[in-house]
Amino acid sequence: MNDEKVADLIAIHDALSGRSRLLMVLFGPVYLLTVMAGYQFQLTPESGSAFWPASGLVLAVLLITPFRTWPVLVIVTIAAESLAAWFYYGAPGSLRVAFDFANPVEALFSATIIRRYVLRIELTSTVHRLIAFAVIAAGAGTALGAFLGAASIRTLAPEAVYWQTWHVWWLGDSLGVLIVTPLLLVWASPNFKLRDRLSTARLAEASLLLGGLAVTANLVFSSVPALRTILDFPYVVFPFLLWGAVRFRPPLVTTACLMMTTIAVWHTVQGRGPFLVMGNTEHGHTLALQACLLVSALSTMILAAAFEDQRHEIRKRVHAERNLIQSQKLDLVGRLAAGVAHDYNNYIMVISSQSEFIARKTEPDDPLRSHARRIADAADRAASLTRRLMAITRSQVTNPKLVDANDLVKKTTDLARHLLGIDIELRVLIDDAPRLVSVDPEQIEIAMLNLVLNARDAMPDGGLLTIHCDGCDVDDRPDEPIRTSQPPRVRIRVIDTGIGMTKEARDRCFEPFFTSGKEGRGTGLGLTTVLDIVDRSGGTISVESERGVGTTFEIQLPPAGSSSV
């Protein structure tokens, strides 16, 4: 499988591909500033940093960029590490070799294991994925980097105790990876849009949560050890983390964890807070701080992941219930339409045969002959409507064939050009790779033509109609930052710049006989027919629309040979 198509992390890379050069340019200065910030979290030069956010930053960047860019990123990382260590320690470069390579080595190890192996494992829940990430990246990867880092600090500061330094370095890097990497990944995910997720009330609640956490954390971790009050105990901030895990989704939860960690480490380094009474040495203070932050952050994220899984199950159940109601409606309409279509078809056959008989019995220049032909044409159009009704009732048997979806799009667009007005520009985007599907080509053409006609009616003053055929990863869970690997599906998108739909119309657009068009225009069966055809083809269809912006219908079909066909 192509490495650039592994899970949603690569979807993030695709979303950033147009700005990849800017990302490469900004990474160096941002990483240097992050490293310098990490040095501020050291209690003494002889110990590692209690919190090292740079480890999480470099791992996140490696996970969302293609392998071919890794050498450049590693060189930039080493250069930034060397420059920052020179500012802080002032030691010759030859003494800092292990120091400079510690973070890149652990990041490369973790990113390689995650992208080459973990993303290819079928993990059933967000909790399982989070635990796998914590074990590999925040556990094994950071332990490897700590061996190099502790050795380098021992070289620069001979009075340092190796294993004490190793513990601090390991836990500091673990905090950085466990908090910063998920935070960057969930906020960078193209599936997350803040304006779509938080209403005004929820935004006010989130602000109250973060504000309350910031105030409480500063009160708790800036307390003077000699004054024994309830604020001496770090568990006072835990209710805010639980609040975030229960009420909000991963982006805000990771932000809250980062805020609490930064405040706690900063005050402890400045000689304040409850951790200064734990342990008899600075090393003991640091380990108590790191252990508390690691346990609270990991527990909060696991709880948030569990609630996210629960929300997903609820969404699946609601979606299944809606599909059942839709299916029941279609079944009811189908029973009614089957009887009507059968009788109606008999009448049409009589009208058609009699008009043909009249046309044969009249002279070519007889006016009656032209009238008979018009009657026959009207009968043919009525028969077409009957076929559409029969398709909805599933009375028509599909005839699946192995075809290239690109060819279907080309054939459909050739027909569509004659249906669109001169004010509508048609743009067709097809990639070079063959997109083989096993479908009834005539039925798929009917579905696509219905979408084209729907787009035409949505652009009475003209506009742009785009038909795009490409491949996409399976996306049955769009809110997840990591997806399992499955064969790419064939995606056909019909995009217009028309008037768009309201939320009510968008939610009901596939219902039988529902139409948002003008009175007397449209039967309300077009999108119902599309939904039925796509469903019988083993695919899915979704719609995105915004009033005044336009509408996008997206059809996903299983590739030929997949089990879902």
List keywords for this structure.
Heat Shock Protein 90, elongated, 565 residues, alpha+beta, two-stranded antiparallel ribbon, 62% helix, Helix Hairpins, 3 domains, five-stranded mixed sheet, disordered N terminus
Description:
By secondary structure, this protein is α+β, with helices and mostly antiparallel strands. It has three domains: 1-192, no CATH class; 321-392, Helix Hairpins; 401-557, Heat Shock Protein 90 (2-Layer Sandwich), CATH 3.30.565.10. The protein has helices at residues 7-16, 20-39, 53-64, 70-89, 97-116, 126-156, 162-188, 194-197, 200-221, 238-247, 250-269, 282-361, 367-392, 405-416, 441-457, 503-508, 526-536; strands at residues 401-404, 424-430, 436-439, 463-472, 489-496, 540-546, 550-557. The chain has a five-stranded mixed sheet with strand order 2-4-5-7-6, with helices on one face. Helix 7 packs parallel to helix 12 (282-361) and helix 10 packs antiparallel against helix 11 (250-269). The longest helix has 80 residues, at 282-361. It is elongated, with a radius of gyration of 31 Å.
